[in-house]
Amino acid sequence: MSASGIRPGPRGRAVVTGLGVIAPTGIGAARHWESVLAGKSGLGRITRFDPTRYPARIAGEVPGFRAAEQIPGRLIPQTDRFTHFALAAAEAALADATADPARLPEYEMAVVTASSSGGTEFGQHEMENLYQQGSSWVGAYQSIAWFYAATTGQVSIRHGMRGPCGVIACEQAGGLDALGQSRRLLDTGSRLVLSGGTDASLCPYGLVAQLSSGQLSTEDDPARAYLPFDAAASGFVPGEGGAMLVVESAASARDRGVRPYGELLGYAAGFDPATGPRPDGTRHAVLASVIRRALADASLAPGDVDVVFADAAGVPAEDLAEARAITEVFGPGGVPVTAPKTLTGRMYAGGAALDVATALLALTAGVVPHTAGLARPADGCAIDLVLHHPRRTGPRTALVLARGHGGFTSALLVGAGDRRDPEK
User: Fold this and answer.
1) Who is most buried in 46, 166, 287, 387, counting CB within 10 A?
2) Is-contact 217 236, C-beta < 8 A?
3) Which domains are assigned to the chain?
4) In the predicted model, what is the mean pLDDT of residues 43-67?
5) Which tens digit of pLDDT belongs to each residue from 154-195?
6) How far is 146 from 112, CA to CA, in rounded Å?
7) What is the C-alpha separation between 259 and 257, in angstroms, rounded?
8) Distance of CA 261 to the CA centre of its chain
9) Ketosynthase family 3 (KS3) domain: from which residue to which, for each copy (predicted)?
10) pLDDT at 121 over 90
11) Banded model confidence at residue 6, pLDDT cuts 50, 70, 90
12) 22-49 as b/e, with b when 16 or more CB fall inside 10 Å?
């Protein structure tokens, strides 16, 4: 038994008590949620550098983020923008959860984050120094700031969290995998886990790396650049930002008198290395299997799910595979499907974590947000896609899906909590 009286044993209830959001739709959970309900897009022409010479010029950039106003000044030159986002989001999540790390046992607080490309922009600048000025111009912090585990380390150091710490490198699926790991950590004695993910790869080096996938949209109109499940889909738009969540045991939240946003009910992951359609038409099989295993983990039936937050690749073959997986499990039009990430772009390590935060806000508000910007569903996508305006259907359970580059595939089920004010 730990010093706090928590005995590792059978799986207990894992609840989310705090949300920290840094996204193209706004800084803070309340502003992000307002944008989602209004269908207010954060997509636009890249401004962090001149994108004229690149085939993809549209992205979701976080507006008005100033690191000097969000994190200690000494950390700014030591860390990359993706870590700046995570430090700010972690601070906001802890404040939202009214959790003071100084009042909790240091070895019972854990950190697990998702990472995709690590500190891309920081690494680019140091490589520029190397090739233009020489090795003596490369800073000492290059050795740690680019590292994909830098965020976990900096968050744990900042808040004195000395329990289990780790990082999941599964690209877009990583945000769900990190939250799945947070449940396991609660079962082995951790009291509170900071979990989620952020990304910040909107720099020339980062964009070139993303272009290699061949899946980025080259459309110059932000309103038409990212249209998942639509007949005009032509790829996806990259985004930056993400979300950090405070996950703790239901008993811990109750002892602290905190009302949770919701509960992590079930999780599963799989791997599908195939790309493009299969001759036998089974491209959707891995995702369908992962959904079923997540339902089994939560002891839920398909009819218990009120909304699906789709991965929404924006690539026609990938969209069709996802639609078929959803249809196979839930039936044609059997569950409302939404993809608010059309407002932010795909945010890699930060995308799925933000989807979970959005899903929890939706459950709290009793609203299914719509997928903005779509006009004509693609042939074969026989899903009940929520379009044009939100649906006030009082959802209680949401399924979040995520697929990462290379085949990582994950699903997470969340249930409504008793938090009454989604603007908090």
Assistant:
1) 287
2) yes
3) 14-256 (3.40.47.10), 265-416 (3.40.47.10)
4) 96
5) 999 999 999 999 999 999 999 999 999 999 999 999 999 999
6) 17
7) 7
8) 16
9) 11-416
10) no
11) very low
12) bbbbbbbbbbbbebbbebebbbbebebe
Q: Determine how many CB atoms are found less than 10 A away from the CB of residue 107.
A: 17
Which residues lie across from 14 on neighbouring strands? 249, 264
Q: What angle is formed at CA 299 by the lines to CA 294 and CA 301, rounded to 5 degrees?
A: 80
Confidence at 342, pLDDT banded by 50, 70, 90: very high
Distance, in Å, from the CA atom of 201 to the CA atom of 412, rounded to the nearest integer, reads 25
* The model's pTM: 0.93
**What tokens appear for 222 in the block?**
């932000």
Rounded distance, CA 99 to CA 76, Å?
A: 24
Asked whether the beta carbons of 268 and 411 are under 8 A apart, the reply is: yes
Q: Are 337 and 383 in contact (CB under 8 A)?
A: yes
Give the type of residue at 156. Answer: S
Structure tokens at 253: 């939240």
State which H helix or E strand residue 58 sits in. strand 58-60
Q: How far does Cα 152 stand from its chain's mean position? A: 15
Whose tokens are 């992951």? That residue is 269
